[in-house]
TrEMBL record:
Family designation: Belongs to the transposase mutator family.
PANTHER family according to UniProt: MUTATOR FAMILY TRANSPOSASE (PTHR33217:SF9), TRANSPOSASE FOR INSERTION SEQUENCE ELEMENT IS1081 (PTHR33217)
Function (record text): Required for the transposition of the insertion element.
Name of the protein described by the UniProt record: Mutator family transposase
GO biological process: DNA transposition
Keyword Isomerase: no
A Pfam family hit: Transposase_mut
Lineage: Bacteria, Pseudomonadati, Pseudomonadota, Betaproteobacteria, Burkholderiales
Sorted UniProt keywords: DNA recombination, DNA-binding, Transposable element, Transposition
Superkingdom assignment: Bacteria
The species this protein was found in: Caballeronia catudaia
GO molecular function: DNA binding; transposase activity
Length: 218
């Protein structure tokens, strides 16, 4: 049973931190503990691998340089540990929580298309994230936002060119809307195409048609 005393319970006024700072501090502790747990799992997996001198072949070997990860709680500095593999097997530690080169959490990455669709320009992304996540949330430059936009455009182009020759549709539904959003190459109009796919279920030589709605073009 945990016993709380005056030393373990510290008021907000005594910490000198605001609510957002406390949340980030707690999030950093939890993330760091989770990373250390991942490392411990890896070390336990190879604990029976020994060197010629009988020493453990896979051991921890300090930390990588600290890096800042932009999360929903704001920017958080993390330290990812390293391992040394003396067996020559090439064992490395890669955290699944903070993978190599990751600078933004999935939740922040998912918010970027939403911000762009709301009319936030690439140059204002950093400012918008600063309002949402704090003044220190400057990990997204205009160049990064532009690269992401190009990636989204490529994904949309590949999706638009997908093969539909093997698909059968009962009917097509086409509609147009005016988004009212900023757009570089259009007047804000969007053509929306929907289709109801034909599903066959052979029962007593009859075809049962069920509407499976899917977006066919945008």
């Amino acid at each position: 049973m945990i016993k709380f005393t005056e030393k373990t319970v510290v008021g907000l006024s005594e910490t000198g931190l605001g609510l957002d700072e406390l949340i980030r501090h707690g999030a950093r502790q939890v993330i760091q503990q989770a990373i250390e747990a991942e490392l411990q799992t890896l070390l336990e997996r190879f604990e029976n691998v020994k060197t010629l001198h009988g020493q453990r072949a896979v051991v921890r070997n300090g930390y990588l340089p600290e890096r800042e990860v932009l999360t929903a709680a704001g920017p958080i500095t993390v330290k990812v540990p390293k391992v040394r593999d003396c067996s020559g097997s090439g064992v490395k530690f890669n955290s699944s929580i903070v993978p190599p080169y990751v600078r933004k959490s999935p939740r922040v990455s998912a918010a970027l298309p939403w911000l762009y669709l709301k009319g936030i320009s690439t140059g204002d992304m950093s400012e918008a994230l600063s309002v949402l996540l704090g003044e220190d949330a400057k990990g997204l430059s205009a160049n990064v936002a532009s690269r992401l936009k190009a990636q989204w455009a490529d994904e949309h182009a590949n999706w638009s060119r997908r093969d539909l020759s093997m698909s059968r549709y009962v009917y097509w539904w086409v509609d147009g809307i005016h988004t009212g959003l900023r757009s570089e190459n259009s007047d804000g109009q969007c053509l929306y195409m929907n289709a109801s796919r034909l599903r066959k279920s052979f029962v007593s030589s009859n075809i049962d048609r069920m509407g499976c709605i899917c977006i066919s073009g945008l």
